[in-house]
Write a structure and sequence with these properties.
- This protein has 164 residues and is mainly alpha-helical.
- The protein has a domain of 94 residues.
- 60% of the residues lie in helices and 4% in strands.
- A two-stranded antiparallel ribbon has the order 1-2.
- Helix 1 packs across helix 4 and helix 2 packs antiparallel against helix 3.
- It is flat and about 90 Å long.
- The protein starts with 7 loop residues before the first strand and ends in an 8-residue tail after the last helix.
Amino acid sequence: MLGERGMVAVHPRYNVRMPATKTRKTAPKSGPGNLTDEHKEALAVGRKESRIVRQYLDAMERHQPRRGRRRTAESVERQLEVVEQRLAEASPYDRIQLLQQRRDLQKELEQLRADDNLPEAEAAFIEVARSYSERRHIAYATWREFGVPASVLKAAGLKATRGA
């Protein structure tokens, strides 16, 4: 509530006099409602490119060589068949172990089959790598340090530069 001349306000809770507050005009809100169609399209392109790059880098990481012999889907399927045969005549104690082993093998087989998408992920990466690199300022050397093959970067139109 304002005082006599509008100069002083009395705080309603503490009954203390305070200077009257000035009302300010606020700037128009910025946010999703005020984006132009061009801006929205640019955001969508950026999200799409980021998703493609992430999928390719994840697939590459899954294909990194590991110690020991590389397991194939066929070898895991054979092992699954052996577990299924052993389940038929297993004791309760062995059966619980075999059930868990079967579950682990099924999960591994699922991952091995999902890993077969590296060629598709690579083809999609080649389509967007140049624009993504330019937009995010990622140098050729950075891609190479991560492990992206030079042939893939060349196909994408990225070139090695000196001092970058």
